[in-house]
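=== Structure Prediction Worksheet ===
Name of assembly: unnamed complex
Input type: mixed (protein and possibly other molecules)
Chain count: two
Listed entries:
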Amino acid sequence: MSYLEYNVKTVPTGWRKILYLNWPLILLLSAVACVGFMMLFSVAGGSLGPWASPQMKRFAMGMAGMFIVAMVPIWFWRNTAALAYGLSLLLLVAVEFFGAVGMGAQRWIDLGFMRLQPSELTKITLVMVLAAYYDLLDIKKVSRPLFVLIPVGLILLPTFLVLRQPDLGTALLLLIGGAVVMFVAGVHWLYFAAVGAMGGGLVTAVFFSRGTDWQLLKDYQYRRIDTFLDPATDPLGAGYHITQSKIALGSGGWAGRGFMQGTQSRLNFLPEKHTDFIFTTLAEEFGFVGAFSLLVLYALIILFCIVSAINNRDRFSSLLIFGIATTFFLFFALNMSMVMGLAPVVGVPLPLVSYGGSAMLVLLAAFGLVQSAHVHRPRGR
Amino acid sequence: MRHTPKDIEESARRVSRRGLILGGAQVAFMSVLAMRMRYMQVNQAEEFRLLAEENRVNFRLIPPTRGLIFDRNGQPLAGNEQNYSVVMVREDAGDVDEALARLGRVIPLSDDDIARAKKELKRRSPFVPVTIADRLTWDDLAEVAVNAPALPGITPEVGLSRSYPLQEDLAHVVGYVGPVSDYDLGKLEDPDPVLQIPRFQIGKTGVEAKMEDQLRGKAGNKRIEVNAVGRVIRELGRTPGEAGADLQLTIDHGLQNFMQARMADESAAAVVIDLADGDILGIASAPSFDPNKFVRGISVADYRALTENTYRPLANKTVQGLYPPGSTFKMVTAMAALEAGVIGPEETVWCPGFLKTGGRRFHCWKRGGHGHVNLNESLQQSCDVYYYEISKRVGIDKIAAMARRLGVGVRHDLPMSAVAEGIAPDKAWKRENRGEEWLIGDTLNASIGQGLVLASPLQLAVMTGRIATGRAVSPRLIKSINGVEQPSGAGADLGISPSTLSRIRKGMYSVSNTRRGTAYRSRVEDDALKLAGKTGTSQVRNITAAERARGVFRNSDLPWERRDHALFVCFAPVDNPRIAVALVVEHGGGGSTAAAPIARDITLRALSDGMPPLTAYPQSQRREAEERLNALKLRTPPKSDTGRSRA
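=== Predicted Assembly ===
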């Protein structure tokens, strides 16, 4: 049924699809990844090992994956969205289960060639299932309470599972990412206003519950908030990262110290210099010019996605692209805010730059979906 | 569901509108990020650059002051003394060989020091300070300080190092500290960061090792500003650490010193327990060694001398040495038999000098035999045949159970290294450990503390204490931690019938105070200090039938390591027991000649405030005792600074 909805005759077929890919987007993604390789090379003291070369291999793998995903017609992805969502929920539960039998506090499942974090996967499948849901739903019914409750349930289920791991950063990403898809799909303003008000109330409750016996967050989560609000309280412990990260970042100045000339990262002040705090190295070595350029690259990626989404008349496709672009946005916005001391340390990587396989592969697969939507968009009339 | 074109139009319009709002919000947030970036990297760049480059902020750990160890009277047993050293930071020093050569022109450096320093410098990160030379004099330290401009990356430091003012006296009890080894780190799951400080010292043996967690304390830290060459410009702030807890041991250092001195020429071990609360007043293993040598790093020659000494100075014989208890075990056999009711206290056994069982002859130590003996006489004269007979009646399992009740074959929980469990063998034990069935001969051997039975001097002291009090006295070594009194070891009633206990005590009284007793020569004449004991002579070899026919060798004719162990256990004063003593002289010969006289001196010393009163000795022995006591090399504890420097 859904197959007919797309005007199949106007969609490119075979190798011609490659011509219709969103090439500027691919170039932008590669550019960001190259920045990542450079930084990993620099952090390792001018060596491809131990980070830069595995990262390159994984990027190549991810790009191949992106092309494969892009070649598959978008309606296939729409029809399997519910299945993908269910599968990722199962994986989340499996992680929970394996954690319980004593394999430690694991958030990932070993696939042999890589470690898959189901929570990473869920960020994408959640967006997919929501987009598919709103594609199926009559537009007039979008704001009816019952039909608002269903997507809310779809969002809260994985959020709850991820919170149990516990992984506050990912839970936050899922929540905001899901809400954004609902917003773009046209759910009434008032719902968001109400949730906003409730969220405000919850934050108040979280703060007031501290130290009482119905305390809502773990102690270490409170400490993270504390050190975020005032890093000086614990300069050796949790606040250490923020203070050192700010020093490294700020000392970069206008043009930076030059490639591989950073002193702060080299002195091992930052223990996670190759993952969550890699932006500080960039900012120290290339200064404001470098850091701002990366931000511009990211902004262009978002821009190309939005343009592609608005020009796409297929509801599933445009919602999916908005959802994925927003998830991507949340990644780098949270990471940069954290590094610059605007948000608490929540452990979100800088997308395509931080060292790490799982996140990169999933992100590139997601951009594969964006490409597929772009290639298979309805054309002509 | 198929949407109508109108729906698609409506959807696309709505999605575009909302999408643009979303995009706008994202752009706004990115602008905030860009502004923040600009603010930090352009407006504040100078401040951050200053923080980052000109004044690198360093964190240094301040090692905590190790807790002190005192004896029961407040005499320091382990303290911290000032130690001057020189440290080097590799990345600030430039060429390491050159820097060491320059330093060598200022203060004397041995080749050993240089080799060790180079190895350490190579192993550590370039910015970690490494100690080059230790225990310098004040003059050397001043020399380095004066020449500081010519010695980049090298700084003089003042630290604390462990010292043991009583040297040999408590080497086995207090133990010693040493630098953290990779082996030590490997044993810990979550090593304290303070252990990474170069040459940080942790307890290696004895109380120092077992009470490490209490003694170590918590590290503090200081934030310092250093300039580009690594010189400290100023201290920004400091979080003081927490000093380790002070321990008070139950040891009386005067008694301990007396024990070591009295046993100086022997390979021996002695334990004195206070019966009121199980306090170990003295626990000495001779010969001993100077733990200070280990703290400073013992020389190869000194270490070889210790390991090659046949008297094994490094072994702590009091708790880790296991000996056949010999006749001192006879109390256990007798109590098992009396409690089981298999023999009456006045019932006699005929001793012709041997007992024939299963085709084998089990000999009494007295060739002609003792004739008719009852319980009291059997203890007094240490008749073996009596115990062969009653052990056959009561069986090994009850004897072993009684031994464990009295603390033999049970591990006593003391914070000392390698506390041994000993063996109180029974049928199940032999099956499990030897894979053999129990034989009646095993029972007979065990009844006189030979064969499979093994006990440490500590266990024998506990056994004697339990016989003297009827309570489950258990030894304790730590009196208080930071002034907090530790649980007493007084123990609950053992549930042994008073008549049994009084019979045994009377038998022990006869050993030491009646004319035919085996320890009569080592009696005490002062009524207030009278002791009740039991001698033991345990074989370390089998006597073959041929040897026996030829006449048993006298101990003095044998090489040292094949001579019998001499043992003596006692409690005193007889009327109101306050202490229990156990003593083993390795390969000393007979218990009555080699062990009992030493044990008497120690007992008298423990019961009196100072030296043993000569009046307590029999008239005929006083002159000899006086000479012996005067010849002892006793130590007057140094009035040293304990190194307590706590601001």
